[in-house]
Amino acid sequence: MGRTEDLITRLASEGAARQGTATPHFALPLLLATILCIGATALVLEDAFPTYHLRGWMPMVVKWGFSVSLLLLAALALHVLGRPGRPSGWAVASLLLPFAYAAFFVLPALLFGDLPFPGEQWERCLIAMGIMSPIGFGSAVMATRWLAPTDTSRAGLAAGFFGGAMAMTAYAPFCPGEGGLYFVSFYLVPILTMAGIGWLLGPRLLRW
């Protein structure tokens, strides 16, 4: 067994003892960044849930159902990836579940929807995603550095998903945009872009 395998085995055996101190340090940056972005968005923007009177809660069910589930699953994947010697493939694969959920609603809307595109205030949506996604990504990197990820590309990918999902979660209540094409263009594409950036930067930002 080589030095790398020895190190992974030792870290895995010590994981239970270090869990009590590592987990709070891991969770704190994620929690603070989420509170910061949600609070700042609520202070800056007005008229929450603008589509409620026209279409009820369904648009928010779709948006938050996707973003909140991706946010939680990305945090879980980061925590699992940060514990060396433990199976992590299932946690990374679970990141596909929110996309399957979204596809159930978005694909019919793409095929049969007649909502105007791009709609109102789409620029504000891109700006919000562009500002808050890096904040969420940075907090995820800080959190994960308290752990010991060995697959830094996958950890960077999960951090990127966390950042994008956090930005969407914070902004979605103030978004008047609707429709499948809007969802794909101004939410999915920015989130996937952030995840791709995380995949590329993970080996540099998370090496130890």
UniProtKB/TrEMBL annotation:
It comes from the Bacteria. The keyword Coiled coil does not apply. Keywords: Membrane, Transmembrane, Transmembrane helix. The keyword Transmembrane helix applies. InterPro entries: NrsF. The chain crosses the membrane at residues 26-45, 57-78, 90-111, 126-148, 155-174, 180-202. This is DUF1109 domain-containing protein.
